[in-house]
Specification:
138 residues, 72% helix
């Protein structure tokens, strides 16, 4: 049976992983650091296995099912936005369009930071999209 939820601490770890990578990249100028959450997120989307979350799962102090659970579909939607922003940021930095690099890096960093404070931008976008589709279908 396929589990359609993921423990909230893993989602939180993923947000910290993205935010930390973006901050370190922007502060140090080592933009390649954003490759780590990009590759991890791509693997999660394409292979359904995120290496960063697999490592973080080992540090859960209780059984995974005992934590508040988050929807995997929502996480994948959010992850696809983060992956796109990270890819566009890296494209910008390494192709000479530094403004694009900063814009997308800051966007994904702010979204991760805001999510850590309790508001999920991706959740809001997905909800609005679902509402639009529902209204259009009826």
């Amino acid at each position: 049976m396929k589990n359609n939820t993921i423990p909230k601490p893993l989602v939180t770890f993923n947000q910290w992983f993205i935010l930390t990578s973006v901050i370190l990249s922007l502060v140090s100028g080592l933009y390649f650091l954003m490759v780590f959450p990009l590759v991890s997120g791509l693997m999660g989307l394409l292979l359904k296995w995120n290496p960063a979350l697999s490592v973080a799962r080992k540090f859960l102090s209780k059984p995974a099912g005992s934590y508040v659970q988050e929807d995997v579909a929502q996480l994948q939607f959010n992850q696809s936005i983060a992956v796109a922003c990270l890819a566009l940021a890296l494209f910008g930095f390494y192709s000479g369009f530094v403004v694009i690099g900063f814009a997308f890096a800051i966007m994904v960093g702010v979204a991760s930071g805001v999510a850590l404070m309790g508001f999920c931008v991706g959740c809001f976008i997905r909800f609005q999209w679902q509402q639009y589709r529902y209204r259009r279908a009826s």
